[in-house]
Amino acid sequence: MIKAILIFNNHGKPRLSKFYEHYNEDTEQQIIRETFHLVSKRDENVCNFLEGGMLIGGSDYKLIYRHYATLYFVFCVDSSESELGILDLIQVFVETLDKCFENVCELDLIFHVDKVHHILAEMVMGGMVLETNMNEIITQVDAQNKMEKSETFIFQSTRQDR
Amino acid sequence: MALKIVKGSIDRMFDKNLQDLVRGIRNHKEDEAKYISTCIDEIKQELKQDNIAVKANAVCKLTYLQMLGYDVSWAAFNIVEVMSSSKFTYKRIGYLAASQCFHESTDVIMLTTNQIRKDLSSPNQYDTGVALTGLSCFVTPDLARDLANDIMTLMSHTKPYIRKKAVLIMYKVFLKYPESLRPAFPRLKEKLEDPDPGVQSAAVNVICELARRNPKNYLSLAPLFFKLMTSSTNNWVLIKIIKLFGALTPLEPRLGKKLIEPLTNLIHSTSAMSLLYECVNTVIAVLISLSSGMPNHSASIQLCVQKLRILIEDSDQNLKYLGLLAMSKILKTHPKSVQSHKDLILQCLDDKDESIRLRALDLLYGMVSKKNLMEIVKKLMLHVDKAEGTTYRDELLTKIIDICSQSNYQYITNFEWYISILVELTRLEGTRHGHLIASQMLDVAIRVKAIRAFAVAQMATLLDNAHLLTGNTQRNGICEVLYAAAWICGEFSEHLENPMQTLEAMLRPKVATLPGHIQAVYVQNSAKLFATVLKSQEGDTDSTTTQEASQLMIDRLPLFVQSANLEVQERASCILQLVKYIQKLQQKDVEVAEEVCALFAGELNPVAPKAQKKVPVPEGLDLDAWINEPPSESESEDEQPKAIFTKEEPKHSRPRHTEVDEKELARRREARKQEQANNPFYIKASPSSQKVYQDTSGVEHIPVVQIDLSVPLKVPGGLPMSDQYVKLEEERRQKVRAEKKKKEKKKRKEKRSGRGRKHDSGPESEEDIAPAHMVDIVTEEMPENALPSDDDERDPSDPHKALDIDLDKPLADNEKLPVRSHRAVEAQKSPVEDGERENAASQEPKKKSSKDKKEKKKDKDRDRKKSKEEKKKKKHKHEEKEEDLLGGQMEEPVVQSEETSEVAALPTSSSAEEVATVAAAEAAPAPGAPSVTAPDSEPDEPKDTEMEPKSSKHKKKKQKKEKEDKEKKKKKHHHHHRHSDAGGEESVQNGTVEEEEPLPPMSNYCLLAENSYIKMMKEDADEVCDIQGNLQDGSQVVVSVIFENKCESFLKSMEFNVLDSLNSKLQRPEGSGPHDGLVVPFQLPPGVSNEARFVFTVQSIVMPQKLKGTLTFIVKNEDSSTHEKLDFKLHFTCTSYLITTPCYSDAFAKLLESGDLKSSSIRLEGVNMPFHHLLARICFHHHFSVVERIDSCASMYSRSIQGHHVCLLVKTSAQTVSIDAKCDEPTLLGNVLDEIKQTFSQC
User: Fold this and answer.
1) A36 within 8 A of A12, measured Cβ to Cβ
2) Are B318 and A113 an interchain contact pair (Cβ–Cβ within 8 Å)?
3) Among residues B705, B712, B722, which one has the least CA distance to residue B778?
4) From A12, which residue of chain B is nearest by alpha-carbon distance?
5) Using the beta-carbon criterion (under 8 Å), do B2 and A162 form an inter-chain contact?
6) Which of B1002, B1018, B1012, B1040 is nearest to B846 (CA)?
7) Mean pLDDT: which of B94-103, B642-651, B1142-1151, B1159-1168 is highest?
8) β partners of residue B1016
9) Is B53 in Cβ contact with A128 (below 8 Å)?
10) What topology does CATH give the domain A2-161?
11) How many Å separate Cα B232 from the centre of its chain?
């Protein structure tokens, strides 16, 4: 099970937080901060796993992260997930974002966090991996975006009618 | 109106959207919080508008703010509004917001049930998808229960996109609503072989997650997974399956043997590191599980270790890390194969990556042996020096101590070396682990007698140099060791070379800056030292030393007397006075040493950490029982607390006592003695079987073996360097080896291993390393007859505990997922033997009168209670709701084709609701309580009844129905179905009742009344809806009645009425008169049966009773309709007032001993059935549970709804069964026994 997925930048600013277990807002922020501190002080070429902080998980949980340019992608997972598998999943996630936003950069995540959520929802659901095939994910995301567009169009045209 | 719309859209143009908000926040870096609070005000305004687009926009912004840490729960209702928009765009925004901030205590969640259900069944797959995704994040037990059926339906959706989501979310549903696991499992299993790989992967995912927590229940799936493993090419699926096998193999070693080969193949063939790694991991798990049984799998171990070495040597840090991780698993069972890679692991200690260093440390822990301990620790000490000022150093420190102290200091051959290591560790600055070092020092000094002299010397040096440790009060973590040092010096002061010096060191003024608890130890132990000094000087004519000592004490102690710490102050002032007194005596030349030493005489022994816990509870002592009557709840809180503990009069009445005359006093004393004698809770002064542990004489029993010092203890000058010991040790070993060789030449037979060595468990290769001293470690004391069990309980809050459910047993009727309908609360508990969950239900047709037999056994484990509560809650919530459901989809695996065909045969098109209720009836939990009523059908006197609108209030009643139509044809069909049902159940019985014959089917249904139109069958007459409520205000009994339509017409407006007696009343909805009937909340199309439940309130339960009742209904043909009526008699037996309640044998025994119960007994002759059938019958028909069974004798227990205990002792010999019974209510008991007798006379 995945307990949480966090994206934050090099300064610890959250860009996306998805908790699959409920915490109150303060705890969530604390977890983000703590995770940032743990992850950010690590060198570039060390392993991508680290035993979880005190706040999240406990002994069965691990933080698995990847660092891309200005962003950290952190997954907090328990022992039922394969470590290398999750690393691959992060890669798939980033590649999917790259496809959907066309050369994704931090700004895309900043301004379109809702879209990132929707993409993530096609990959991970309720803490379990739903889909790992990038093409399938993109197909579903596109189809939903298309629907959204058609609705906006209808909505706008009806408004114009008035 | 138009203006308003225009205004609305103009407003909207000026609204910020999410991007504007983000931009705004970025532009207001200085006053972000202020800016956001104005934004939130704007959002609040937007949420007040009617325009859903505006609301959605606002909610979208809130979602963002939530991520930044703002509480947005106040907008929960608006989120629900946006969720229920018909537009996908908004719906998605709503669900996203909900998934981010809803949780179990969000109260608006209960408003969403219908919306979610609607979305789940939406024709648009993305509506469904979005709802599922959202639900997966905020599903609550209520939602899980209400929607389980809908989601289960979606598992068979045509679109794989929906299927996979529905499959995944089932896991969450199971967690929140464990009852759904069994009914849903067959379909989940099906999905393992779904044509779509995504769905398949989801199913594997869910089952793996389930199996990880409760592997034993999923062993039967192993062949299926094995097939998947050999056929699947999806690495994700393979990884999951392989991980799952890792969890299953410990339970089934045969599986492991089968796995080795395909896994080895995969290891050789795969290019995916992730898969390779998981394969290695599972092979390791297999090897661990086989290690005991199988002789040789060295090839596999070698393969694993070899692959792992490749991983560890890889430049990719991730692989290195994982390699070490897996290595540590092998270590546990095959330490030797890992030890050969010690070089590699020590190398990893130098890695720049802390995670890797920590992993390597973990490995070292398992790799030490007597041979290499010193060497490894030396390496670690080097790292300690290098790691100055990091948390890693603390980690190193704890690891060093862990490594050395593991398994009772198994690998330490030289304790002097260990003490010097500990002393060296005290020189670490700023460590948090001072107390750890201290406790090690104490432990070693206390338990290794031979080392005491050495330890004391070292500790004295430490005390002398205490200023080095306490230089900076900020980093005083390490000063904890002074605690140990002071205590050791005091306690074993006889070993001190120069006690005076140490005494002086302990009384330095600087000590007053130490933490209070350490000062306290200093003060106390200075007194011990003082005693030693006195003793050593006794007999000397020159008394200057002793006087110096006294003077020193008297001079220095006042400092401590002023301490702010209570403990220090108290001890210091006490000791100060003592010393002053001693000084006085000294001046008179009185010999006092003896007496002073006696203050500290006696030896302290180590006590095992769990010793206290293991002291068995004396017989008859119930720690949970009230000492006195519990205070009644009505008592106000400010009542004097002493009232709880004593029945004595309040204080003010005290003077009266003095007036009581002698006689009265004597009488009272006698009474008290009597009471104490009879009171098992009174701890008597008489000698108990318990040992008194404080008894000092016990010391002699501690196995302390004399130490044979083969090497003289040598204290190197100054603070010892452990390295010196390493060197010394090496020399010694060489010497020993040389000697041994000589010896062996001389005499082969002479062996030294027999010499009281305790740790012969070390590996063979270490045999030649003899410990420097034959050190024996004082074992820790345990209480006599300590309870052996070390039960590590699982965390009771673990949600997975509830999912420990046997999935191989066929479903019972009562387990179907709830379908929205009139629902009856169910509180049935029935016997469970061996704590096993048994579920069985069987029905068998018996001619036309259809004495259907039905048998059910249900588990009683704790989630039942939970479910009960949940159901009740749910009932309340949905009182007002009435909707159709997809009940027809419910299929039961037990009931095969017949069942489904019957469901199909129902006129689904005519009335969806009909179908729903029928399905509900089938799904509704059926209680298995017995009652026998004589069929009593008098079909006459039609009575007019008006059609009442279905009142929602009826739902408060427990109702359940069943129907049937078309007299012959259909009935035959029905019977057929039942028969098949029974077959299925019997097979269950075979599975559950080990090695005993299957139980005959049993049923509690009996015919209530029948005419040409309708048949009523009463299933049972016992059900308690709420135990608490019923204990307080009378009791409730629930009667389930199956209505079966036997004619070809439509039956409607059924009204059920009973003539209330004084004792029993039918519960009617509020506002209706005492003679009004209850409308049966369904209609019966031809050939349908349904079940309804009726609640009765019963005053007295000691006597059986009969109630007369009438059912009126309208028979509606195409052209006409007639009123009909059917009379019946309801028979409440005494057994129907019993509730199966589990009882533990100890509680049972206590109950019997209590003497409150009246006894009675019966004999049954000519009972010709196996004993377990007999018990099962009593359990089933009379609601008892088996407490204990020994051969042909069993004790059984049950409890009435009003709390009477009923205990049975059933014995059988030949064909005679004798039942001795005890109960606190003799009339009830008599009736129950009569009923039992009747039950057996009928068979």
Assistant:
1) yes
2) no
3) B705
4) B68
5) yes
6) B1002
7) B94-103
8) B1009, B1043
9) no
10) Beta-Lactamase (3.30.450)
11) 36
Whole-angstrom distance, CA of residue B171 vs CA of residue A112: 30
- Cβ atoms of B959 and B1038 closer than 8 Å: no
Banded pLDDT at B480 (limits 50, 70, 90): confident
Cβ contact, residue pair B93, A47, below 8 Å: no
Q: Tokens 């609607």 map to which residue? A: B118
Question: Which residues lie across from B1216 on neighbouring strands?
Answer: B1213
**CB-count burial class (<10 Å; 0-12, 13-18, 19+) for A119:** buried
User: Pick from B277, B172, B245, B237: which is nearest to A131 by CA?
Assistant: B237
Q: What is the pTM of this model?
A: 0.55
The Cα B661–Cα A101 span in angstroms is 99
Q: Which of A80, A87, A130 sits opposite B209 (nearest CB)?
A: A80
Q: Indicate the burial class of B1118 (C-beta count within 10 angstroms; 0-12, 13-18, 19 or more).
A: exposed
B163 touches chain A (CB under 8 A): no
Are β-strands B1014-1021 and B1035-1045 bridged in parallel, bridged antiparallel, or unpaired? antiparallel
Max distance between CA atoms of chain A, in angstroms, equals: 62
Nearest Cβ partner for B133 among A25, A45, A125: A125
In this predicted structure, what is the pLDDT of residue B597? 85
Torsions phi, psi for B956 (to 5 deg):
-65, -25
Return d(Cα A160, Cα B12) in angstroms, integer: 14
Residue B975 has pLDDT above 80, yes or no: no
Query: What distance lies between CA B669 and its chain's CA centroid?
Result: 48
**Residues on chain B touching A2 (C-beta within 8 angstroms):** none
Closest partner residue to A130 (CB to CB) among B92, B168, B355 is B168
Least trusted range by pLDDT, from B420-424, B554-558, B886-890: B886-890
Chain A contact present for B110, CB below 8 A: no
- Mutation target for B interface from A125, A145, A153: give the one with most B CBs within 10 A: A125
- Whether residue B95 lies within 8 A of chain A, CB to CB, comes out as no
- Which pLDDT score, from 0 to 100, does residue B283 have? 86
Q: How far apart are CA B1143 and CA B1149, in angstroms?
A: 10
Q: Select the residue of A17, A51, A130 nearest B165 (Cβ to Cβ).
A: A130
Which among A82, A113, A128 has the least Cβ separation from residue B168? A128
Quote the strand ranges of B1022-1104, DSSP E. Answer: 1035-1045, 1050-1058, 1064-1066, 1078-1079, 1088-1098
pLDDT-above-90 percentage for chain B = 10
For chain A, the distance separating the N- and C-terminal CA atoms, rounded to the nearest angstrom, is 50
**Contact A128/B206, CB-based, under 8 Å?**
yes
Interchain proximity A125–B354, CB inside 8 Å: no
> Mutation test of the interface with chain A: which of B68, B102, B206, choosing the one with the most A Cβ atoms within 10 A?
B68
Contact partners, residue B751, CB within 8 Å, separation at least 6: none
Say yes or no for a CB contact (<8 Å) between A87 and B66.
no
User: Which of B458, B481, B459 is CA-nearest to residue B469?
Assistant: B481
CA distance B275 to B263: 10
Task: Name the 3-class secondary structure at B1142.
Answer: coil
Closest Cβ opposite residue B198 in set A82, A127, A131: A131
HEC assignment per residue over B833-849? CCCCCCCEEEEECCCCC
B989-1031 pLDDT per residue, tens:
333 333 344 555 555 566 666 676 666 665 443 333 333 333 3
